[in-house]
Amino acid sequence: MTHLLVMRERLIRFYQDHARIVNALFRFLISFVTFFSINQLVGYNPVLNSWYVVVAFSVVNTVLPMSVLIFLAAAYTVFHVYYVSVSLALVILLVFLIAYLVYLRFLPEHGYVILAVPVLYGLHLQYLVPILLGLIGAPVAVIPMSCGVVCYYALKCITTVIGTATEESMVLFNQAFQMIFTNQEMYLAIAVFAIVMVTVNMICSQEFHYVYETAITAGVIVNILLILLLSFPFNVEVHVLYLLASSVFSGLLAWLIQFFQVVLNYSAVEYLQFEDDEYYYYVKAVPKMNIAVGEKRVKRFNAHLLGGSRFGVQTPENVGNDRSNMRSESSEQEEKNQDNREI
């Protein structure tokens, strides 16, 4: 635990000293992962699927706000699907427009949630979404999270339709919409994610010790149990080992993110009482856990202070010089003693 606290303090100090560079690298990394995930899911256009285009878009997004990244990611996806089918590109465009008109138009600051859900699905970290939003978000984040799930499964259904289509026609348009809105796995994910997020958020609002660790553990358990129980009525096939491994790993990542955000020292809790003219206050004060990180100081020794030798190592030449100096000093001392005797 001490090593993690030391690492946390060093990373925080490094970020404070190089905030501008770290923010630029973080935006580049997010943009790169976003466009890379889109290419992995619907990488039909060979021009957009190339590495230099992904890197170029990522570099451009380092100086642009996150709202521009959301717009570019949506346009990037539409052009990929447009390369294969115009009608299917119209389908995904309508899905993005519905998400915008329903939610993003009124609360654009939550657009990163809609963007993060398909990306984390591509990284096989989809169970991290409800746990993390329950820790740092508000219950209203259920809406953009659900929109993100719909966007991901819409892309997944479109790839399925493209894989089975033989010709371009408006039949693909109807087939894609029918497949999207009858997808039982999508409804299962929306229901489970909403319940897990609300559960984690409700536990985090409590006041007992180790509340964040308890909320993360409860979120992992509820996620596993709900998927296993609801998979039967929704008629969805579940890989149990993948579910267990992905849920536990997502819980560990959520704990790590929470750890770098805030660490509380429950062994030093203080209870305070004070009053004013109108109220009497009972306060529970939980200090943050911080650790002092010492800085390494290197002392430099000059060579002439170490007998003229490098790094204080005596060479044969230096040893001979030292002995001659000692002999001259002893002879001078004997002459002074003889003079004192004669006096």
Cα-to-Cα separation, first versus last residue: 76 Å
Quaternary organization: single chain
Residue-averaged pLDDT: 82
Main sheet: strands, sense, barrel: 2 strands, antiparallel
- Strand arrangement in the largest pleated sheet: 1-2
Short description:
The chain has helices at residues 2-17, 19-42, 51-61, 66-82, 86-104, 111-122, 128-136, 142-164, 170-181, 184-204, 211-230, 240-261, 316-342; strands at residues 270-275, 280-285. Mean pLDDT is 82; it is low at 308-314.
What would you note in describing this structure?
The protein contains 13 helices and two strands, in the order ααααααααααααββα. It has about 350 residues and is mainly alpha-helical. A hairpin with a 4-residue loop joins strand 1 (about 270-275) and strand 2 (about 280-285). The radius of gyration is 33 Å and the shape is globular. The model is unreliable at about 310-315 (pLDDT under 50).
